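Annex B.
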Amino acid sequence: MIALRSVLFNIAFYINLIARMILLSPYYFLAERKKAWSVPKNWVRANHWLQARIVGTTFEIEGLENIPDTGYIFAPKHQSFWDAYALLPWLDDPFYILKRELMWIPLFGQYVSKMKMIPVNRGARGKVMAEVLERTKEEIRNGRQLIIYPEGTRRAAGAPPDYKYGIARLYRDLDVPVVPVVMHPGLFWPRRKFLRYPGHFKVQILPPIPAGMDPDRFMDRLIEVMETASDKLLVETVAANPQLPLRADARRRLKELGALPSDPRLQ
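1-acyl-sn-glycerol-3-phosphate acyltransferase: predicted structure tokens.
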């Protein structure tokens, strides 16, 4: 049944994407930029509805009051394709620094260009990176939210942390707060897997780390805050969803935390 529901959801997911891009592109490209955000944000809401109805996966968000009113860095855990889009409706005017190759994808590239995302050649140095930083500062000054994944790429739930120092450099250069976010969607939508699992999980938006700290101290604090909250939430999520199959990283971390030792999935 899980496999069938996963197939149906994946089909519905892409039909939802393609149909909206075809039908709503005229409005999207003609509308003022911030109004055009309604198109991708409503697409996200529709995906949440589809996932809840077809798969049975639901979520809740805690800590929305921790989101600042001015520009900031939004720093979520990254485990799944889900968290690449899922929180957009709760952010006013977010943007990414992304690989320039993504801008070359037909239609998708035009969509992200409309939202003034910042493309970058990952091998670039010197002047090019300075220009990227200046563009980023300009967007932040306009009150936008830069989304940065502190570990750079998707990590399985419970995997050893692998934070990249790049976020500390941006924190220093942009001089704005960083809002850490922890969640475990990878337990329900695993990376590189087509299966989608039912259940309920939380997204926790943690209190912002204020601007102005030494970058090394900031990095230590970010890791401590995120990993402490992530471990606690992992234990809570697994306990609340006993039906979930657990992959090796999650089993290992739960054992290290001494959580649920009688659970046969942890043996």
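The chain has a mean pLDDT of 92. The beta strands are 57-62, 72-76, 94-99, 118-120, 145-147, 178-183, 199-205. Further annotation is deferred to the next reporting cycle.
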